[in-house]
Amino acid sequence: MSTPKAVKSILSLEKALHILEIMANNPAPARLLDIAKQAELPTSTALRLLSTLQANGYVNQEPESARYYPTLKLYNLGSCILNSFPLVDIAKPYLRRLADETSHSINLSILQNDRAVLIDVVDCYTESQTITTYRGRAVPLYCSALGRAFLTGFSAQELDEYFRRTKLEAYTPITLLTTERIIHEVSLARQRGYAYEPGELRSGIAGIGAPICNARGEVIAAISLAELSSVMTLSTIELYGAKIQKTAMEISAVI
Predict the structure, then answer these.
(1) At which of 71, 94, 113 does a domain end?
(2) 155 and 30 inside one domain
(3) Which of 19, 73, 195, 230 is the least crowded, having the fewest Cβ atoms under 10 Å away?
(4) Radius of gyration of the chain measured on its C-alpha atoms
(5) Residue 97 carries which DSSP code?
(6) Residues 156 and 99 placed together within one structural domain of the fold
């Protein structure tokens, strides 16, 4: 039987982990008040938990503004896990070939907590550095190419449940915010074998993504590339889409 002290410790741990998740998804330095608001905690509680996280090296503060930001300790822990993830090693040669063929960095992601989480990024060093991302980044399903690739594997009931628990927020002026239009895009992605979004997650940056499936046909991962929306013509979309779909199918065949 849990003691009141044990229960209190568990609750504190849950709150601290929630703060870390908030900071990991929004790594820009943040004020104490903003963190407390997002975590739905009293300021005093947030301060106590942040102080503990800071003492253990997971969080630090800017000297002048005193804003909090996550340290690389989180990244190092995540990297240890990602490096032992078998899919990364299996997919690596296929992603390297795709990066070379398209002259674009290629992202590999898995589904976690209704978000597409990047577990590997195969860089293309000739690509413009104006488009950057990083391992561990989590993006929404409804407005990203990676996310919509995952949604192609959802049943009608699973899609309905997803939209019931998801708040649709506008990341850019063109983010789709109605379930009907998003489901239409998911349907198109199923038909052509890849998802496309013209800049709904990041202004001016389009994405193309395709699902990776296991032997049972279940979507277990997704790959994508990003390009400036201004240079994305129909022929370019179809070219990259076909290459991404082909690569995703090749990876699916060996896992």
Answers:
(1) 71
(2) no
(3) 230
(4) 20
(5) H
(6) yes
Select from 71, 95, 111 the last residue of a domain. 71
Give the tens place of pLDDT for each residue, 170-200.
Answer: 999 999 999 999 999 999 999 999 999 999 9
The pLDDT of 6-23, averaged and rounded, is 84
Domain match, 215 and 130 both: yes
Contact present, 98 and 106 (Cβ < 8 Å)? yes
Residues 63, 18 share a domain: yes
Can you tell me whether residue 168 is helix, strand or coil? coil
pLDDT average, residue stretch 211-240: 94
Tens of pLDDT, residues 95-118 = 999 999 999 999 999 999 899 999
Q: How far apart are CA 136 and CA 112, in angstroms?
A: 11
Has residue 5 got a pLDDT over 80? no
Q: Which of 5, 247, 217, 230 is nearest to 108 (CA)?
A: 247
Q: What is the CATH number of the domain that holds 131?
A: 3.30.450.40
SS3 state of residue 220: strand
Identify the helix (H) or strand (E) that includes residue 236: helix 234-254
Digit-coded pLDDT (tens) for 194-208: 999 999 999 999 999
Tell me how far apart the alpha carbons of residues 223 and 90 are, in angstroms, rounded to a whole number: 13
- Predicted TM-score of the model (pTM): 0.71
96 is a domain residue: yes
Which stretches of 26-175 are DSSP H helices?
A: 32-39, 43-55, 72-83, 86-102, 145-151, 156-165
